[in-house]
Amino acid sequence: MPSLVHLIAFALVALGLVLTPGPNMIYLISRSIVQGRAAGLISLGGVALGFVFYMLCAALGITTLVFAVPCAYDALRLTGAAYLAWLAWQALRPGGQSPFEVRRLPIDSPLRLFGMGLVTNLLNPKIAMLYLSLLPQFIDPNAGSVLSQSLILGWTQIVISVTVNAVIAIMAGSIAGFLKARPSWALLQRWLMGTVLAGLAVRMAWEGRR
After folding, report:
1. For residue 26, what pLDDT is reported?
2. Which of 52, 63, 41 is nearest to 122 (CA)?
3. What pTM did the predictor assign?
4. Which helix (H) or strand (E) holds 128?
5. Other CB atoms closer than 10 Å to residue 181's CB: what's the count?
6. Residues with Cβ < 8 Å from 134, sequence gap 6 or more?
């Protein structure tokens, strides 16, 4: 399994990423504000299932590549570094939109809420790239089963993402009012996360060269 240091570092990065606005967060917040907390949590169930699907695909794919192609591990690192650098730019560039700017959504049934949460996540290519970018960064092929390490890290990310998104869905209305009155907090969050992503991208690229 991953070392404790790698596991803690991965958990911190996963926490920072889930706090970065994206399609899932925007949908869950809008749904919670428009239709209520219960609707947001039901939608989150679909999002969570999408995370499980992508995580299993990424874990199996990474394991296959590492054993089949000797240079695949470094290739994944360098691709991940480029993707994280792009995410850093998206966080730091001016003109970013707050996810707490509500979109008007129709009132849906619980089954449709769950399905829309799942579809929103599955149609978000950033989730697949997230796993392919982050997992190799914290996997040591010499520390045991690559698949086991991938699954442990993947489940760690899912637990963190679901927990944080559940809190956000429950408190969406209050958080929206808070950030609307204090725009500097949203700007601080963007710069902090952008800096972390940029640093991680540089580290991944450097390790890929060694």
Report:
1. 73
2. 52
3. 0.68
4. helix 125-134
5. 8
6. 10, 13, 14, 17, 80, 153, 157
